[in-house]
What does this fold into?
Amino acid sequence: MSAARQGARCDKGDDLTPTEAAVIAARAGAEVLMHHWQSLGRDDADLKSRNDWVSRADRESEAAIIRSLGDSYPDDAFFCEEGGDVGAKNASHLKAKRTWVIDPLDGTSNYLQHFPFWSVSIGLRDGDEMVAGVILEPLRDLVFTVEKGAGAFRNGERIHVSEQRELEGSFLATGFPFRAQKYVGTYCSIFQDVIRVSRGVRRAGSAALDLAYTAAGVFDGFFEMHLAPWDVAAGALMIREAGGVVTDFSGGDSFWKRGNIVGAPPEIHAALLELIATHTCEADLG
It folds into this structure.
């Protein structure tokens, strides 16, 4: 067993590392999602806010994930898309050292429209830093895993960001700021410049998978505005462990709280920040 793997073991000395436990939990959530897949539609969902949906599948998946992780880690806390802060069984959320950051269904709109691009994302935060994560794409049975200091993997094979070095001719992923309509104009001005130089830009609808695919070199970079912590918790660490750079729109780390994120190989990342700077900066994005 590697030193990194030993370091990721839970304090109780269980056989599973937190990453392995997260894979099991993600699969428990995915089982729920596959059960409902193509049977639920928009009429079966509730509108949380403008263009932001939640379904029974989201809630049941989240509950299954929390049950799975909570049984092994009763002193950990959970920060979830649907349930918000969930206190540890034997410690309050504020006292818990570790927090699982969970998106039980990333790409709910895709899921409800029966568009096959959605995922389960689980990240583990220890103190002030992300230390592990899992992103599962159930329909293709792709499991992306990461541990801080130990690299990022897809179905057990190490992954690395792409070798693309120039924004010219790059293949990028993005997402539209549907939760932050007042920034659509700013986003569109950035997007216009990006499509003038890139080979292609895709908006597939699951930020967690976009980040995982960027870590795996499928995309040469990713940028989006006003995401939530559970959207980026696992994927941002994956890109960093795969050799890439992840920051907010001005090169800082506020993407955890503010949700404006750029992730890419170092050269592409620098070029994207330079392009974005001609239109806006982090301080202007609220």
